[in-house]
Each structure stands twice: as structure tokens, then as C-alpha cells.
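Example 3.2
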Amino acid sequence: MFFFVLSGFLITYIICDEKQQQGQLNLKNFFVRRVLRIWPLYYLMVLVAYATPYILSVLHLSASQEGYEPNIWASLLFAENYKMMWEATHANASPLSVMWSLCIEEHFYIVWGVLLYCISLKVLPKFLYAFMLLGLVCRVVYVQFNIPTSDLFTNIDLFAYGALPAYWLVNKPGYIEHKVVAIPRVWKYGFVALVVMVVTLCSQMSSDAAYVFPTSVLGILFALLIILIVPQAGGLKIKDSNMLSRLGIYTYGLYMYHTLVINLLKQLFNKGGYNMDKPGVAMVFGLGALLLSVLCSVLSYQLFEKQFLKLKKYFR
């Protein structure tokens, strides 16, 4: 959820800033930049997912039988989330099971790019308030008809929550900073603690029905958290030298590779006869999965993704 809110903030800020500076959005350049960021790793992972059964057979490891058989067209056309909704389960090949959110992101880029290209920035807040309501209503309706909430309609309010502070930053410079400076620092850290507590409580929920209203609450809290972090003065600062900040550029890879790494390690640990219920084994497994996921993500970014990102300079 947080990444939907963050994506709404970043994409809206980029588009609003360009429209304010240039008078219009270059839609072609916007879409090309998104393609260069998302498509290379996405399609590499699609290739890996469909090659997984053959790779496992070579390694003499068993393939998962849980979930549906992947559909190549659903994967290639960023429709994996709708395939998951139709089947009411996930694909039986990693990392297709986590690609539903990337499909939503891709649909968001298309809708947001076209919308903000066509409308004046002055009327954007009205659309954002409408989307906040639309997302909540769609979740209620989907749950009533037992439809999984894994599409743009049921998550569009999250993007809107992130988009609103981006709009304020571009069109009302200094407004957010002035408000944030006036908030005592102890209150800011208290709010961060509140967000952590709410996220922890919500993580215990296991059904879409339970998430109908908490999704809106989390979206608002995440947007407020962004507001507390973004301002240059008075905001909650995260140093660039911080390890988490450095890992920030690899989050896309971490998201894509972690399921592959975890499933592979599970197979290896089970084949080796290790009892995953033992605390020591579980700790080694968790640490190994984290380090290997980070390693894969760093190598992927430096050797593969970065080569495409270098092309973005031609589409500024």
C-alpha cells in the first residue's frame, strides 16, 4: 500500500512540475521513461518465471503445484492481476505471484499520464477527491460480490492520497514546509510510532473485507508521513548515507527477486533435511534470504537495469 501512495506522490510531482515549467506534459517522453524503468526487469522476471519448471528439473527440485498455470498473454500484457482475480488465487510460478501490484502500477501510469495531460492542474484536486471516494466505494462493492480487490479501481484512492501533497508542493510552494516546521519534533516521531503500530495491527488481517476501510486509513497515514519527510526545513530527515537510503534504489529488484530467493532456499533447505521450525535454522534461512535478495537486486540494477535507465536522459 505504501508504494502505491509513494508512486502517486512521485509521478504526480514529476508531471505537475513539468506542466508548470513547460506548460504541457510531453506524454511520449513520460511513457518512455516509465517503460525504461519498469519493462526490462519485468519481462526478465516473466522469462524466469516461465523457465522455472525447466530450471527446477535440471536442479532435481520439485515445482510448486499450488495456484493456477500461468497464461503467457496475461503476463506479457500486464494483466496478471486480472488473471489472479479471475482464478481467485496466485500463479504457481515465482515471481508472477507478486506481479499483480506491478500491473496496477502500469495501469496507473497510463491513466495518470493521459488524465494529467488532458486536464488543467487547477482542477486536479477535484479529481483526487473523487478518486479517494471511488477507491473506497469499489472496495465495498467488490467485497460484497466476493471479487478480489487487486485492480486499479480498488486501489486508486491510495495513489490519490499520495498525489495530493505532490500537488501542494508544486502549486503552493512553502505551504507544506510552513505547516511542518510548526509541528514539534516529538509529535512527528510520535506520529511515526503511530503509523508503525497501525501497520502492525493491520498486517494481522487476512481478508479483503477486513481491509476495506483500513486501506483508506493507511493511505491517509502514509500520505501524512510523506508530508513530514519531504520538506527541506523541519521535516524528518533520512540521511543519504543511511543503509536503508542506499538500498532505496534497489527496492524494485528486491520486490521482484525476494520470492525467487525464498522459494529456492526453501527447496534447498528441505532437500538438505533442515528443520525450518528450529529457531537457529529459521534465523539462518531469514538472514540468507535477505542477503541473497539484496545481492541479486544490486547485481541486477548495476549490470542490467542501469543500462536501460541511462537512456532516460534522452527523454527528459
